[in-house]
Every structure is written in structure tokens, then in C-alpha cells.
Design brief:
single chain, 358 residues, alpha/beta, 14 helices
Length: 358
């Protein structure tokens, strides 16, 4: 007879767990978050050094530094009160687990529970973490702090080749990892560039430059131009690039240090795209034969480097078969050999284990 009916039971209140991202500037919170904070009966935060607290207090929000357990928090909401908990960087797992246990017991009338993201990551936000980690490594790591653009150059080439290998192998996990290694090279070089005494630049300058270039070279996306085919897109790209670079020869900008087949293919592509009539040089020897084959491949839309690598992999498999080596063993031996080479490179650099920077 003394049992309280649902209609007359006290309102159990409301708990709002407010989460924020450290990748978003403190104080930049969503409108629903500010509403919840301003209308709450209490605002709690277990971390007195939470980066949001100065901004909340500046906005007139009283925040109590407290870390109640689940039962205490439920009791604090009794009578229809709303308590907002500003989550710490770890997410307060002890509290949320305790609330889950109370709710699962069936013996406690639980307040309404709401998870409210006050700020959240936009696409690309994790790049900020990479910049911060690289900054610390550059300052504190004995090896990384001594590196130069020139010293790291060979690793950029190696990582690019490993990326191509992952693409050709169709290994998605390897592809993700190798993309990260290539990205590291960009961030590492950008961090080194900040220290140049006369012409410093940062990763933001690098990103800003490529953004401006992409926008300018895609007038069919960001402007009034029209392109409906890949060929028209390439036309736009080459036309805007020619204006930007003001080159006097189609050969300008072609790196001569790239592999021979790739170099020959790029030159042939430049000649064909520009509509020039330049006969291939005649001469004796395998070099001229390879040049002619590379030009023919380019004209037929074939990447001779990729084609040769594919043929070489087939040859490698045939060698292993002749040796009686299984694929798994061969792969393992290849990794061991590469690890040994990496260790030698690292010793040459004076810091074993950091030779790849990845």
C-alpha cells in the first residue's frame, strides 16, 4: 500500500555526459552543449586542469571539481535535477561502467542518460596529432633532432617504392601503413623546414600551397570552367600549370634522377601531350632499345615500370619454384633481408632502430 506508483514517483532527473575533442580549440562548443551547460543544476568535472574549464567559467558557468561515483551521481539528480558531467580526456570509464551496472541491476530508477558531443573531430583531425607527435620527436629524440632534408632524402624514395609495392600487391593493410610512412616523410621534412634561418616554412604552408594549387588547377570544380571527360580535365591542368610555371621547354620539371624507364616515359608523354614531332634518337645499344620500348608503351597507355615489375615478380616466383622454396618462406627471407639492410642503414646513420623514421 506504501509503494510509490509510477505517476507519483519522484522525477529521477537527467545526467548529461559532455564530451569534447582536444583537436578543437577549447571553448568552441556546439549550441546544444551551451544550452545544457546553462540550464544544468550542477556541472561537474573530475579534472581541475581540463582545458575547457577556463572558458566555461569565463562564460559564467559554475563548474565543481568533483568525481562522484555512479550512485552519488544518480542521487544528485533526484527530484528532477540535471547534472552535466564534463568528461575528461580518458572518458571517465569508471563512472560510465558504474552507471551501466546500476541500470542493469533493475533495482534503481535511473535518470535519463544522454551522451552529448560538445565538439567532435572533422575529417583530417588526426593529422593534428601527427604534427604534435612529430614536433615532440624533433625536440626530444636524439636521432630525429639531428636529421636534415639531405639525410632523409633516401627514405622518401624508399617509402614511395614501398607504397607502390603495396598498391600492386593489393594488400589493403599494407597500403594503409605505407601511406602513413609517406605522410610521415612530408611532416618530418616540414618540421625540419621550420628551423631554416632564412626561409622557414611549416606544414601549414605546405598544405596551404597544395590547396591553392588544386583549387587553381580545377576550375571545372571551383570555378566556371566545364570538363566532362578525363581528357578535358587534363587539358585544364596542363594549361593552368603552363601559366603558373612559365616554362620555356616541356622538359622542365622532369626529374632526371628518377628510374630510367620512368624518365623515358615522362619525356615521351611530354612530347606527345605538347604535340611535338621529335623523333627518337638513333643509336646502338640496349639503352636506345629501352628508350624506344618505353616510348611505345607510353603511346599505348602502358606504364613500362609497372609492366616490368609485374614480369620481374613472375620471374622471381619461377626462381623460387626452381629452388623449391615455398611462397611463405620466400616472403619471410625477403623480409629478413630487408630488415638486415635497414639495420645497416640505421648503423650508418648512427642510431639503430630509427633508420627508416617509420
Amino acid at each position: 500500500m506504501n509503494a510509490t506508483s509510477p505517476d507519483t514517483a519522484p522525477d529521477p532527473g537527467r545526467i548529461v555526459l559532455l564530451t569534447t575533442s582536444h583537436r578543437v580549440a577549447p571553448g568552441l562548443l556546439s549550441w546544444p552543449a551551451w544550452q545544457a551547460l546553462r540550464t544544468a543544476d550542477r556541472v561537474l568535472c573530475a579534472d581541475g586542469a581540463h582545458p575547457q574549464l577556463p572558458y566555461l567559467r569565463e562564460a559564467g558557468i559554475r563548474v565543481d571539481e568533483a568525481s562522484p561515483d555512479a550512485r552519488e551521481l544518480v542521487d544528485a539528480c533526484a527530484g528532477g535535477r540535471t547534472v552535466v558531467v564534463v568528461a575528461t580526456g580518458e572518458g571517465d570509464p569508471a563512472l560510465t561502467d558504474g552507471l551501466a551496472r546500476l541500470a542493469g541491476s533493475g533495482r534503481v530508477r535511473m535518470p535519463d542518460l544522454e551522451l552529448l558531443p560538445a565538439s567532435y573531430d572533422l575529417p583530417g583531425a588526426r593529422l593534428l596529432d601527427l604534427v604534435q607527435v612529430m614536433d615532440r620527436i624533433r625536440a626530444e629524440c636524439p636521432w630525429s633532432s639531428r636529421q636534415t632534408h639531405e639525410g632523409l632524402a633516401k627514405y622518401g624514395i624508399e617509402e614511395a617504392y614501398e607504397l607502390v609495392e603495396a598498391i600492386e600487391a593489393g594488400d589493403r593493410e599494407e597500403l594503409r601503413e605505407e601511406l602513413g610512412d609517406v605522410l610521415l616523410q612530408v611532416v618530418f621534412h616540414s618540421r625540419i623546414a621550420e628551423e631554416h634561418p632564412e626561409a622557414p616554412f611549416s606544414v601549414d604552408d605546405v598544405a596551404g600551397g597544395i590547396v591553392a594549387k588544386l583549387v587553381h588547377r580545377h576550375p571545372h570544380v571551383f570555378g566556371d570552367a566545364t570538363a566532362t571527360t578525363p581528357e578535358e580535365v587534363k587539358e585544364h591542368w596542363l594549361r593552368t600549370k603552363a601559366v603558373e610555371k612559365r616554362r620555356t621547354s616541356v622538359t622542365e620539371g622532369v626529374p632526371l634522377g628518377q628510374p630510367g624507364l620512368a624518365l623515358a616515359t615522362k619525356l615521351a608523354s611530354r612530347v606527345r601531350t605538347a604535340g611535338l614531332d621529335v623523333p627518337l634518337p638513333s643509336g646502338e645499344g640496349i639503352g636506345y632499345e629501352l628508350l624506344a620500348m618505353a616510348a611505345r608503351a607510353e603511346a599505348e597507355g602502358v606504364d613500362p615500370e609497372a609492366a616490368l615489375r609485374a614480369a620481374a615478380r613472375t620471374y622471381r616466383d619461377a626462381i623460387r619454384e626452381a629452388e623449391g622454396v615455398k611462397d611463405t618462406e620466400g616472403a619471410g627471407h625477403g623480409e629478413d633481408a630487408r630488415d638486415a639492410e635497414d639495420a645497416e642503414d640505421a648503423e650508418d646513420a648512427g642510431h639503430v632502430g630509427h633508420g627508416e623514421g617509420a
